[in-house]
């Protein structure tokens, strides 16, 4: 398991990457907001997608599109991967949810 300081650096970098990925998207279609340890993506339809830290287990959790994922950082691939072994990766999963909800794709 990651030590807390390393986890916090990785989580912060992931949040920055999420924010950067939405820079060129129309906020009317997909609007991203960061408040503490939570990233909320709101869609014109009223639906939302939430990414938040889970410090005790050193994960990032994602909820969107009637599903939820728990991502652990994989040092070997330097990616946040779903802990259920599905092969889902954090940023590609967020991109898929955003595309399905708003018809746009963040630039990660």
Number of strands: 6
Distance between the termini: 26 Å
And the CATH topology?
Metal Transport, Frataxin, Chain A
Q: Could you state the order of secondary-structure elements as H and E?
A: HEEEEEEH
In oligomeric terms, what are we looking at?
single chain
The CATH superfamily is known as Frataxin/CyaY
Helical residues, percent: 25-40%
Mean pLDDT: 96
Total helical elements: 2
Which spans have pLDDT < 50 for at least 5 consecutive residues?
A: none
Overall tally of structural domains:
1
Layout of helices and strands, plus pairs?
Elements lengths: L3 H18 L8 E6 L2 E6 L4 E7 L4 E6 L2 E8 L4 E4 L7 H13 L6
Antiparallel strand pairs: 1-2, 2-3, 3-4, 4-5, 5-6
How would you portray this structure in words?
The chain is an alpha+beta fold. It has a single domain (4-101), classed as Frataxin/CyaY (Metal Transport, Frataxin, Chain A). It is built from two helices and six strands, in the order αββββββα. It has helices spanning 4-21, 90-102; strands spanning 30-35, 38-43, 48-54, 59-64, 67-74, 79-82. It has a six-stranded antiparallel β-sheet with strand order 1-2-3-4-5-6, with helices on one face. β3 (48-54) and β4 form a beta hairpin. The longest helix has 18 residues, at 4-21. The radius of gyration is 13 Å and the shape is globular.
